[in-house]
Amino acid sequence: MAATDRTEVPARDYRVVTPYLFIAPAVLVMFAGLAFPVLQSLYLSFYDWKIGTPLKSAEYVGLDNYIRLISDPDVRESLWVTIRFGLWTISIEMFLGIALALLLEKPIRGASVFRTIFILPLMVSPVVVGLIWRYLFDARVGWVNYYLGTWFGIEPQVWLGDAELAFFAIVLTDIWQWTPFIFIIVIAGLQALPSEVLEASHVDGANWWQQIFLVKLPMISSILVIALLMRLIDVFRALEVMYIMTGGGPGRATELMSLHIYNRAFDAQLLGYASAIAVLLIAIVFVISISILLIGNPMKDKSDV
Prior knowledge:
This protein is mostly helical. The chain has helices at residues 18-44, 64-70, 73-104, 111-118, 120-123, 126-136, 143-152, 163-191, 195-203, 208-219, 221-236, 240-245, 257-267, 271-296; strands spanning 47-48, 59-60. 68% of the residues lie in helices and 1% in strands. It has a two-stranded antiparallel ribbon.
């Protein structure tokens, strides 16, 4: 009996889509949590709506809110404060985080204890961080004035009552809270570097500095770009710590855009106008983020760690 030729149909390989099925629920939740507020803000930005009144009674004003914010000096000032705050905090945090990671990447005595203590600020609630540093900078009973006077003989300063000193205070607080974040990301990338490459560079005569700037940092450049992008987004949405410490004052010296939006929405009860400023903030963050990704392009070399 002649054998019948059978053409076997290859089984469908579900391994290709399996990873996407696992992350699909999280993606849907994130999309719902992000898309609805953004669309709602965009919708409200065309209306003049006050708290306590039905939305259906809100007056449609078209582009008036956007025209108003373009000529509003308070919006420009809060944007400048945010940019200035971001330049100071991100620059120092990236420098300190990378430097500490390079110093502690090798197993040395006490390194694990230091790492544990160092990441504690990340575990503290932003509200608690604001309260802690508000009392530390208190002009009468704060530890900052006490130790500056005891150790250096400096007269007590009204840290949160002076424009420049208050700005310095919120910058220092943010550096204390978020430098460990950069440290964790960078040290994880450094410890994942292939030892063969580092040994080869050492055999070729590269010293410690050359290994850092010519081997290690270039190999984790994609990680550095992602860390920079994440901190940039955090700066534009920073709110709780500044609200607790200074409330945006004195004057508007520490009023970041997120805090300005909060004040316009809930203090002035201009929800439509606040929504327009929020849309502007989203657009700014989107443009800057896309620019960083296009310039840095963390996926340009998938062999990067």
